[in-house]
TrEMBL record:
Pfam families associated with the record: BPD_transp_2
Species name: Nocardioides simplex
Membrane topology of the entry: Multi-pass membrane protein
Compartments where found: Cell membrane
Any one GO cellular component localisation term in the record: plasma membrane
Protein name from the UniProt record: Branched-chain amino acid ABC transporter permease
GO molecular function, one term: branched-chain amino acid transmembrane transporter activity
Keyword Membrane: yes
The keyword Transmembrane is assigned to this record: yes
């Protein structure tokens, strides 16, 4: 159920991002004076975005509680918070599918690789460092740049290595 709901939410957020409202939301972050001049209240827009984000987070918390069974302060260790913060960074920022991809990568690294289960947090930490250095916009950002034929740090390094 959580996977289906995550897919539906990511699809809805992706559609919102591509809609006129998504353009207004991004513009309110980049050029708030222009949005305010166009007659859209930036403060109201920010409150609506904050409320929508809080609703999505509370839905995720409710699903997490049904998975765990009960929630107490020990449930959210530093490792869990660290993983939750860095999942979108690993997958890619600026795209709801990046958070989904980042979560899939982290879950695979921490749960499905039995030989790495004891060092899962260390592996994810190293993955975050490598991805942030090589792919500053995450895996999806790198894939999008590479698909468009753009220059990334990885293509620059490999081209320099090929010249020598």
């Amino acid at each position: 159920m959580a996977v289906v709901l995550t897919g539906v939410l990511a699809l809805a957020l992706d559609r919102l991002r591509r809609s006129p409202w998504g353009v207004v939301i991004r513009a309110s972050r980049e050029v708030p004076i222009a949005v305010d001049t166009a007659g859209v209240s930036v403060s109201v827009l920010n409150l609506v975005a904050l409320g929508a984000g809080a609703a999505i987070a509370s839905l995720g918390g409710a699903l997490f509680t049904t998975y765990v069974g009960a929630v107490n302060p020990e449930t959210f260790s530093v490792n869990v918070i660290f993983l939750a913060v860095f999942m979108p960074l690993i997958g890619g920022i600026g795209n709801p599918w990046g958070a989904v991809l980042g979560a899939a990568i982290v879950v695979h690294l921490t749960l499905n690789v039995d030989s790495l289960a004891s060092s899962g947090t260390l592996l994810v930490s190293l993955s975050v460092l490598v991805i942030l250095v090589l792919f500053p916009r995450g895996v999806l950002g790198f894939a999008g740049t590479a698909a468009r034929g753009g220059t990334t740090l990885l293509t620059t390094v490999t081209k320099r290595g090929a010249r020598t």
